[in-house]
């Protein structure tokens, strides 16, 4: 291309500068030489560039060839590995197929053997059934019973035997449980009694008021007996003035009234002014004083026992317990003792001792009502406790401590037991001897009125009745029924403190002599 351009330029120069031919010729030669030199240089440079490019191309080719060979080698290695795995799997699969084929042959052989054995078993079973049927027919012919009847007899026999064994096992288990329970219960009760003690205050229905001389009797009686009549009307207590030296008897079933009469008499005698108006005034003041003292006694009792948050009406009723007695036992002392026993026993059993103590203190609250209710004292006490917002657990313990309702908490039986412990303690209660003996005789006669009863014994101060029945006259079931009927009849026909345990004894003896 350079040559072409140069030629065009030279042609133009020649046509334009004809006059300068010689010069142009020289220039042309010079230019030609330069062009030739440039062409040679360009050709040489092109050769060098060409050689370099060829070398680069060869190197690139060799590099690509090496990479391709490496890639092909890697692919071949992967393919070889895969082929190896495939061959291994194929070998393993062939082995498994051969194993499966072998096992299939073995299974077919076993199946044929089993079919043969099954046929033999079926034949033998048919033979056994025929033999069994023949034997059953022979046995039925010999025994005179059908197979169903014989089966029923065997089942009944097995039932009876199993029932006997079960009863024996149950009896042994119950006896063992009772023995353990009795031992634990005795231990807890003994520890409770040993840790709790209280004084026993025996109350009578008569109080004695001592005077300095018999002349004071006339002043107390007053003209035509007006003073003594006014005193009896104001206090509700019968005042007996007899030949007893230096003493006047105050008779009444209500200890509060007797205490009011005693204190009023003491004030009147000390003051010396004894007339109906003064008597009414003194009795009114004494009643207020006794009411205040009752509240103070209730508060002091709850504080001593560590019981708090009780309604003030319940506190007042607790104070009134001091002036009540049950079979000669002071009711407040009995309730305090029962509360302490309940707390001790509840602590031994892992229960709340505060709740138990509260229930024990309130269990006889129904014996000191402001009015006379138609309900038994336990149920009335429960109603009072519910009225004054005591807990359901405490209310149930109060209402159930004489089994007049169902117990639904563990505190209830504790209160019942501790009430019995406090009431049954020797010296705690007293009873008129004649009434006591009569009650025991009536108890024994009531049991003797039943058929089959041989002897009866009232023991443990009338708290247990043992009834001995004839073994040939009364069965075990009838003995259980007799115990239940006796308990119900005693409940309905007799009056007694606490509870009475009825034990019916049925004994069979076989006697023979060796000679």
Question: Care to describe what's here?
Answer:
This protein is mainly alpha-helical. It is built from 15 helices and 8 strands. The protein has helices at 2-16, 21-143, 147-195, 215-221, 226-235, 255-271, 276-305, 312-320, 331-348, 353-362, 377-387, 392-399, 411-424, 433-448, 476-493; strands at residues 206-210, 238-240, 247-251, 325-326, 329-330, 453-459, 464-470, 501-507. The strands form 3 sheets. The chain has a 3-stranded antiparallel sheet with strand order 1-3-2, with helices on one face. Mean pLDDT is 79; it is low at 199-203.
List keywords for this structure.
515 residues; mainly alpha; 3-stranded antiparallel beta sheet; 3-stranded mixed beta sheet; 15 helices
Entry summary:
It contains 15 helices and eight strands. It has 515 residues and is mainly alpha-helical.
């Amino acid at each position: 291309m350079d040559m072409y351009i140069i030629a065009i330029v030279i042609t133009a120069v020649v046509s334009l500068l004809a006059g300068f031919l010689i010069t142009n010729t020289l220039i042309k030669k010079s230019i030609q030489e330069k062009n030739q030199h440039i062409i040679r240089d360009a050709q040489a440079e092109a050769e060098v560039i060409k050689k370099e490019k060829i070398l680069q191309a060869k190197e690139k080719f060799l590099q690509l060839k090496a990479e391709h060979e490496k890639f092909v080698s890697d692919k071949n290695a992967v393919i070889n590995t895969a082929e190896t795995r495939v061959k291994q799997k194929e070998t393993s699969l062939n082995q498994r197929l051969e194993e499966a084929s072998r096992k299939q042959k073995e299974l077919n052989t076993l199946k044929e053997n089993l079919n043969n054995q099954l046929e033999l078993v079926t034949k033998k079973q048919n033979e056994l059934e025929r033999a069994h049927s023949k034997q059953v027919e022979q046995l039925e012919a010999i025994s005179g019973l059908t197979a169903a009847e014989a089966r029923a007899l065997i089942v009944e026999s097995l039932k009876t035997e199993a029932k006997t064994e079960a009863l024996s096992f149950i009896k042994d288990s119950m006896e063992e449980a009772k023995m353990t329970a009795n031992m634990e219960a005795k231990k807890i009760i003994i520890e409770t009694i040993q840790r709790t003690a209280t004084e026993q205050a025996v109350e009578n229905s008569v109080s004695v008021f001592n005077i300095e001389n018999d002349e004071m009797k006339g002043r107390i009686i007053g003209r035509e007996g007006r003073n003594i009549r006014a005193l009896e009307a104001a206090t509700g207590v019968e005042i007996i003035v007899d030949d007893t030296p230096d003493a006047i008897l105050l008779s009444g079933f209500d200890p509060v009234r007797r205490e009011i009469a005693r204190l009023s008499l003491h004030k009147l005698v000390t003051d010396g002014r004894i007339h109906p108006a003064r008597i009414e005034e003194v009795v009114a003041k004494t009643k207020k004083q006794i009411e205040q003292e009752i509240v103070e006694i209730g508060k002091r009792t709850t504080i001593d026992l560590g019981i708090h948050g009780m309604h003030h009406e319940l506190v007042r009723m607790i104070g009134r317990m001091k002036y009540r007695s049950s079979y000669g036992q002071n009711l407040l002392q009995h309730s305090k003792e029962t509360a302490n026993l309940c707390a001790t026993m509840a602590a031994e059993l892992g229960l709340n001792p505060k709740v138990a103590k509260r229930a024990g203190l309130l269990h006889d609250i129904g014996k000191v009502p402001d009015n006379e209710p138609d309900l038994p004292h336990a149920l009335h006490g429960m109603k009072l406790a519910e009225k004054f917002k005591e807990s359901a657990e405490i209310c149930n313990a109060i209402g159930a401590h004489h089994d007049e309702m169902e117990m639904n908490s563990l505190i209830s039986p504790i209160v019942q037991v501790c009430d019995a412990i406090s009431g049954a303690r020797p010296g705690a209660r007293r009873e008129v001897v004649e009434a006591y003996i009569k009650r025991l005789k009536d108890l024994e006669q009531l049991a003797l009125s039943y058929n089959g009863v041989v002897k009866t014994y009232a023991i443990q101060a009338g708290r247990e009745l043992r009834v001995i029945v004839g073994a040939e006259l009364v069965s075990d079931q009838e003995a259980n029924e007799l115990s239940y009927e006796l308990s119900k009849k005693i409940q309905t026909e007799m009056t007694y403190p606490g509870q009475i345990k009825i034990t019916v004894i049925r004994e069979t003896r076989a006697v023979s002599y060796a000679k």
